[in-house]
Amino acid sequence: xxxxxxxxxxxxxxxxxxxxxxxxxxxxxxxxxxxxxxxxxxxxxxxxxxxxxxxxxxxxxxxxxxxxxxxxxxxxxxxxxxxxxxxxxxxxxxxxxxxxxxxxxxxxxxxxxxxxxxxxxxxxxxxxxxxxxxxxxxxxxxxxxxxxxxxxxxxxxxxxxxxxxxxxxxxxxxxxxxxxxxxxxxxxxxxxxxxxxxxxxxxxxxxxxxxxxxxxxxxxxxxxxxxxxxxxxxxxxxxx
Length: 240
Description:
Layout: H1 4-16, E1 30-31, E2 34-35, H2 36-43, H3 49-53, H4 57-69, H5 81-92, H6 94-99, H7 109-125, H8 130-155, H9 160-185, H10 195-198, H11 203-208, H12 215-238
Antiparallel strand pairs: 1-2
Helix pairs in contact: 1-4, 1-8, 5-7, 5-8, 7-8, 8-9, 8-12, 9-12
């Protein structure tokens, strides 16, 4: 097993969270992203909510390794893209992660990470629930992308802080370009707002924009917001 999995697990656990047992959650009692049914199947024995609550990170890691990491043959994926596709498998299903394997082919690992990140953002925005859950989904994608880029650069012998800060600068430029395009597209808008202001736009608005007249405007605003938040995630990871 490559070193990526144990190194990445703190990042995964950060997004999966701790113990929850919400009555409206069809998965029931869940801890570290592992549901009671998954734990029961893993142990091949009855388990209680108390067992779920007491689940160790070590056992959860083994479940993730067997059911997701091995399922997408992540040991055969370059360092960096392996973490990205592993998180896709956990968050969106093993089948989707397998479908996106071609995004890694014929690309260097850094470009592959960014390609997967772009595909994930487009996929999530296409979902009807984006207006409700989009902010959390994008936070996860940006954070995992920054982690994976750092991992890829490190394994290529490059400087992680330099690479991530460079990516942040590029993301800010893309955000500014998209903001300007949105300002030019939207009738009645005289000047483009600052990127910092655009990044605070209500996510319900981003998810709701879909009328034919507003499609281009909505897409450009989405790109501006995404790139602004990507830049922030890159800078945060560069300082770790």
